[in-house]
Amino acid sequence: MANYTAQDVKALRERSGAGMMDCKSALDEADGNLDKAMEVLRLKGLKGVTKREGRTTSNGLIVARVNGGTGYLIELACETDFVAKAAKFIELADKVADAIAAAGATTLEAALAADLGGKSVQDAINDEAAIMGEKVELRKVGSLKDAAVDAYMHRTSKDLPPQVGVLVAYSGSDAETAHDVAVHIAAFSPSVLKREDVDADVVATERRIAEETARNEGKPEAALSKIVEGRVTGFFKENVLLEQDFAKDTKQTVSKVLENAGVTVSGFLRFRVGA
């Protein structure tokens, strides 16, 4: 008879983030000793690293760190929502974010090499992934600097950690408006800050499609130019932050709201798990 209880299995799951059957197997092998079971999970997990390399990490969470005028945003990915909401995984994500911010890492390569308790972030992730029994990877890292940076984390499900994260770099004293814009970005996912940031080839393609569509609809030749420009403007309003209608007051654009508040946004980042 196994020398452990259901409570032991639960405790090991919470401590390790591993699945129920893996925890039961580890406790069997460790004769019910939790510490030894953790070691069993780690050793078995390390042996399975190569097998996990090709797996898909479609779950995970977003974490932000802001220190005055510098902000960092990371996506730590895993395979299942079970691991994504596990305390062990959330704790790992927090430690990784702290290490990246402490190192001032602004690229994925620099972030993976940052120090985390005497080992690299990459090695720390590998060690914890071995226990969890899943592929875990630091998928995205971003950073912004300005006079101030605001962060907003959004939960798409109450049962999961934040799946969407936004940083807004800005100057000006109205922090509330800056935060409202961060919330807006989370909801409306603009791709660029201003019209000039849109790639010229993308604009040309949109203009060509708008013209072809208008012709196929039988629009009069004399009206084509105005129709095309109207549709291209619509494309900008959908994708350019400053030209979007503000979420809290759709009668104003984001640009107008920022102008009235005396806030200038220099950049933003928006991460969504799996995107």
UniProtKB/TrEMBL annotation:
Associates with the EF-Tu.GDP complex and induces the exchange of GDP to GTP. It remains bound to the aminoacyl-tRNA.EF-Tu.GTP complex up to the GTP hydrolysis stage on the ribosome. Signal peptide: none annotated. Residues 71-274 form the Translation elongation factor EFTs/EF1B dimerisation domain. It comes from the Bacteria. One of its GO terms (cellular component) is cytoplasm. Pfam families: EF_TS. It comes from Rhodoluna lacicola. This is Elongation factor Ts. Its main location: cytoplasm.
